[in-house]
Amino acid sequence: xxKARLLPEERRNAILAMLxxxxxxxxxxxxxxxxxxxxxIRRDLTYLERLGALRKVHGAAVSVEDESHDPSFxxxxxxxxxxxxxxxxxxxxxxxxxxxxxxxxGTTALEVARNITCTDVIIITASPxxxxxxxxxxxxxxxxTGGVMRPxxxxxxGAFAVQGLxxxxxxxxxIGTGGITDDYFLTEHSPEEAEVKKALIKRxxxxxxxxxxxxxxxxxxxxxxxxxxxxxxxxxxxxxxxLIDYAExxxxxxxxxx
Length: 258
Fold this sequence. Notes:
alpha/beta, Rossmann fold, 2 domains, Arc Repressor Mutant, subunit A, 10 helices, three-stranded antiparallel β-sheet, seven-stranded parallel β-sheet
């Protein structure tokens, strides 16, 4: 059975999710799966190869991701898509008019941005993706931090990004994470992104972690700080009981969706 037609971005995310699971995907099979021409699929693969998300071979594509390194934005976007969307919808309900809101750079945080319904808010972000989305939604004021663009993850990092965050007093920060260790530390895949996240947490009155269950007991090699730094966790219903117990001990509110 062929899938319903998807938008190009949705189709590319789905291709990356399949590639992550299988290690290799074939143009002819992808064309049949998505109900498009092989030429369309080849254009998709060329686009994703330029982003460093895969490598094209004759009639197919293979994965180039090494999980010891920082996965690309497009690989992240293809993971746990349903959970991320549900988490984003729930988190956006916490945003009210008149607030100064910081939205992090991850793909789950992007889903928060996409679901904001009020427009009289100030949005601060180090993510061009987030900025583009909220500007198109009519948000009254949007601030990009500045900084050095990381090509794989499309995030702004470095001293300018940290300085940009330090200029604001933030009501609520919606943050993602590269992962959470089994001893409950937030982590990232790069020192540069970890420093930006530390500044974001420091400048915010309330820190809300948006992360699906796959982020727990996994993640990057750079520690940001203990999970107890956050005030609220919005996740999916596959969250572990150990994490629920930790949250209760540390008075962290938990909302599980899906």
